[in-house]
Amino acid sequence: MTSSDADHPRGRARLTVLAGPTAVGKGSVSAYIRDHHPEIWISVSATTRPPRPGEVHGQHYWFVSDAEFDRMVEDGELLEWAVVHRKARYGTPRGPVEEMLAAGRPALLEIDLQGARQVRRSMPDALFVFLKPPSWEELVRRLIGRGTESEEERTRRLETALVELAAEPEFDVSVVNSEIQQAGEELVALMVEPSA
After folding, report:
1. Disulfide engineering: 100 pairs with which of 41, 70, 110, 145, CB 3.0-4.6 Å?
2. CATH number for the domain including 59?
3. Residue 57 has what DSSP assignment?
4. DSSP state of 108
5. Domain range spanning residue 45?
């Protein structure tokens, strides 16, 4: 890292961390960026939760067993990891992130709030972006409309979302996800903003 990069943490070879409340559309915004901005590398998280319909192992997530996740934690292979919604574990494999940053490629982590806090401790020069819904009512509509969770799971996620929304001041910048393309383009502009 050059002194210029250190003085301007929004330089090209920087890690960007995207977090926000459940059902805000982090996955949809990331998918838009993956489809329209191949210059941006997007980390694939490991998780112990089962795949949702249409999710592909290695593309959307690395779906791993509890035993494999334990091994990854023990061996220091995860940049961050957390238990999400008091249920499944999610984590970011460290190696690929470090490789992309060393190669000077813009890298994006789409993770939960707990994970973002861990990354801030280990990589404070990263850009931390909070993805927020246009309103609480819209967040509830999106979560219910997704139809992938049980009533109990929806209730748990909404309780979690209230706590997650309160964390917005911890982030460097916020992006409102009123529309996926607009939010995605705003995020990419933040990621590739040249050093001043």
Report:
1. 41
2. 3.40.50.300
3. B
4. E
5. 3-190
